[in-house]
Amino acid sequence: MTAVTDTIRNGVDTKQLFATLDLIKEQPELAKFQFRVSNRWIDGSHNRSTIKDFYAAGGEDTTRGDPFVIDAGEPAILVGSDTGANPAEHLLHALAACLTTSIVYVAAARKVQLTSVESILTGDMDVRGALGVDDEPRNGFERISVSFRVTGNAPEEKLREVVERAQKRSAVYDMVTNGVPVAVEVTTH
Amino acid sequence: MTAVTDTIRNGVDTKQLFATLDLIKEQPELAKFQFRVSNRWIDGSHNRSTIKDFYAAGGEDTTRGDPFVIDAGEPAILVGSDTGANPAEHLLHALAACLTTSIVYVAAARKVQLTSVESILTGDMDVRGALGVDDEPRNGFERISVSFRVTGNAPEEKLREVVERAQKRSAVYDMVTNGVPVAVEVTTH
Lengths: 189, 189
Description:
The structure is a homodimer. Chain A is an alpha+beta fold. Helix content of chain A is 31%, strand content 33%. The first copy, chain A, has helices spanning 14-26, 87-109, 156-169, 171-178; strands at residues 8-9, 12-13, 32-43, 46-51, 54-56, 59-61, 68-72, 114-126, 143-152, 182-187. In chain A, strand 1 and strand 2 (12-13) form a beta hairpin. At the A-B interface, strand 2, helix 1, strand 3, strand 4 and strand 7 of A face strand 2, helix 1, strand 3, strand 4 and strand 7 of B.
């Protein structure tokens, strides 16, 4: 699945990875990033995000060509027409993707060659909260369960250490478990 | 942009919406939902989520045909090759999509005909945390800013009330601001 050379492991260029880490250690001001999403309502539960520009390492990053375009929707039971995964599912995807990327990078840095990383995430929700039927259940998931299957050329204990370290460093895991301050402003013209 | 009839407003079938709310009021056990995502590592920072089945209203929902498939990646500066938006951007998309859907549904319920809902979200991150260079900065965004532009056939005050109510009921806004318990389990064979 992945090439193994002196520097590329799990598809990650470890030479580049370590060079980036060294650079940020020396110049911490380069660590300030800003990611952005533009979203536009289309119809009903259908809306679309466009993702391209971001600020990184002291300037606007212009390496991306076409923007990423991601649609959201709701299934019929939530009065939609399935124009995309729903927002709560997108949050589970963000969490899965971040933990998986963290596992792959940590493994690469620790010289662990992975053969597979698979996960199933579930989120349990009492929709009375989000639908405004009852004030008691919270709006979001009551709990999220993540089940990983990770295989590679290392003993079980080392693979488990990689997952633990990845969990400790994942940006989305931090946000989903600890929360983030969100400021909302509105214009109406 | 949207048809206006007795029941369809902002593309939302309000008759169906109110019928769903009434049903869940009468039978709260139908409010238990579970959403799911399967994710698989492809190479480097490239991984892919598949989203289809979910549990809703007392049983497995089988109305969806093809699964939704969403790719994640990282830009070059984060040692990836831009195979998709990155996980933190996907989280911003989830938040944008949920707030927007909530605005549209609340407006439909309150007889407000919307003409547009647009938003720009930004998340500020000191990547020393997630990269493991420094223990002090958190891994995730330090803050998220959401800027909405909402227009429709209602006075500014009413449009602002719609956004406020939507914010109070959004599932992803709740999760991102307050956090969710996440349980991670691992198998290695």
